[in-house]
Amino acid sequence: MSEEQPIRVAVPCRACLSGEDLDWLGDGRSVSLALDLPTTVEVVPGGPSGAAEQADTGWPAEVWAFLRDRFPGLPAGEAPAVSVSSEAPAASGLSSSTALIVALFRAFAEAAGAPAGVRVPDATLVQWAYEFEFARFNGGGMDHLAVAEGGALLIDGRERGLPVVRERLEFPDDWRVVVVDSGTRKNTADHIRTVRAQLAAGDRALAAYRAEADLASGAAWEALRGREHEALGEAMTRAHRAMRDFQGMSTPVLEELRTLALRAAGLPLKLSGAGGGGSLVGVCPAAEAPGVVARLADALRDPFPGARVIPARAAPASRSARAGDRVGVSAG
User: Fold this and answer.
1) Which of 1, 2, 128, 164 would be a feasible disulfide site paired with 156, CB 3.0-4.6 Å?
2) What is the tally of structural domains in the chain?
């Protein structure tokens, strides 16, 4: 690689509106929404090698090594130094880790291929990012599709490999997403190990969760398609209750946050991600969002000083998704 202008890649995070784990359990639907709280990676082609700046994982070096095995001509040695920033809270169930991995794959591939005019298709990079993360956490591919494609996705799960994107929608422009970061971190790896053990044992609670979460996902998608805001809130509440009641994914802190949000701002919240901590998400009309955020922040200030209220917009569909270049596996 020769000295060039910095390559900057921004990837949105993901809120799960319904159907956690169904993307890799199979036989179930999930609804994801990309949020404009991006993780940004910047790399200088031909610049100095070294550990990533502002990154608290070894992923830049590991992604570089992964790419070197698949990208002809990628230089040997250490990964180029990168700078990383994120607007999404870490370990919060918003898939900021997957956003970082996808951004690293895009930035490194572009940096390596730019001098020769080589471009790795986005679908290939997303597949590689999924394989990279699956080898470490044994989870699913909803997050990779969600952050790569943007918009809202209805996803059919698969037990192995990237799930199927059944339908795509742009989130209504006159709706906003409110994120409540509880300030308590979740542990996705432990959660996936627990659920895989349930699956192997034929656990009845897991079976009940899968059935109820799938129905909630169907209701959430119909609400999105019909632009029915209140119906979406009801479907997300149904999805949250399935997570809590069948899988124990909520906590007393998260439940109290939900109660406060409903009482103070009339906002139904749903846990996003593996649970045990992390963030809750709700949807409200854009015109009401400033007031909802202010009331909610005021209500949480004393009892939950470590919590944060983060207003967010939905991230639009990517150019490849708008052009019909499907990253997910075709249902046909």
Assistant:
1) 164
2) 2
pLDDT tens for 200-247 read 999 999 999 999 999 999 999 999 999 999 999 999 999 999 999 999
Q: Which two tokens stand for residue 174?
A: 């006159």
The boundaries of the domain holding residue 278 are 175-312
Same domain (yes/no): 221, 182: yes
Identity of the residue numbered 263: R
From 276, 280, 285, select the one nearest 310 (Cα to Cα).
280
The residue assigned the tokens 């490999």 is 161
- Give the distance, in angstroms, between the CA of residue 106 and the centroid of all CA atoms in the same chain: 17
Residues in the chain, total? 332
What is the tens place of the pLDDT at every residue in 64-93?
999 988 876 677 777 888 999 999 998 899
* Spatial distance between the Cα atoms of 69 and 40, rounded to a whole number of angstroms: 24
CB 17 within 8 A of CB 27: no
Sort 255 into a burial class: Cβ within 10 Å, 0-12 / 13-18 / 19+. middle
Q: Which residue has the tokens 């119906």?
A: 231
Instruction: Give the phi and the psi of residue 126 in degrees, each rounded to 5.
Output: -65, -40
- Predicted model pTM: 0.91
CA dihedral 12, 15, 17, 23 (to 10 degrees): 80
Give residue 276's Cα distance to chain centre. Answer: 17
In the chain, count of helices (H) and strands (E)?
11, 9
Q: Three-state SS for 162?
A: coil
